[in-house]
Design goal:
It is a single chain. With 211 residues, the protein is of the alpha/beta class. It folds into 2 domains: 117 residues, 3-Layer(aba) Sandwich (D-Maltodextrin-Binding Protein, domain 2), CATH 3.40.190; 85 residues, 3-Layer(aba) Sandwich (D-Maltodextrin-Binding Protein, domain 2). Helices cover 33% and strands 29% of the residues. It has 9 helices and 11 strands. The strands form 2 sheets. The chain has a 6-stranded mixed beta sheet with strand order 2-3-1-4-11-5. Strands 8-7-9-6-10 form a 5-stranded mixed beta sheet. Helix 5 links the parallel strand 7 and strand 8. The chain starts with a strand and ends in a 5-residue tail after the last helix.
Length: 211
Amino acid sequence: MITVAIAKGRMQDDALKLLGKAGVHLHPTALASRRLAVEDSSGDYRFIFVKPMDVPVYVEHGIADCGIVGRDVILETQADVLIPLDLGIAHCQLVVAAIDKDVLTRSLGMLRIATKYSHLASSHFGALGIPVEIISLSGSVELAPVLGLADAIVDLSETGRTLQENGLKVVDVITESTGRFVVNRASYQLKADKLTRFTHSIEAALGLATK
């Protein structure tokens, strides 16, 4: 059996639709339950549903043989995993957003940046030569500038609507992100045949299969 870690939240539905096209189906009752580990109808795959930041951890440590997670998470966690496929799902941008569109050019001294992407934010502002204080938040980072906790945020933006509704403007784009298929290095060797077939099935679903 192959264990697949799926990022819960905005990417989950797209990931399951793609897997369905690849011939891997989960029974509706399994999806409707609160179980975080379920098997597909064939019994060949077990799926675990975890927070996005945890997917690379489960895969890197071999608890899951493979997984589906955003490129932003892979970059942030710096996980040692194989990344054979860009799935092209859940496209979004990792952005810097603030109420003041000139926040990066004004001389404010050290900027306060609220984010759950501490590593990527520190690297980005370090490359720009802008000193920052990272304020780590796990959710609702859009509130930080509104309530005066931070000068700006670093967060994912898909449509920009949430930012606009909270009076924030995108002032910089750090990177693009899409869903990626990641594989544990040991599993890639030990379960080579099964993972190769699984990968080819996903490629076929994406229209990438070679003739």
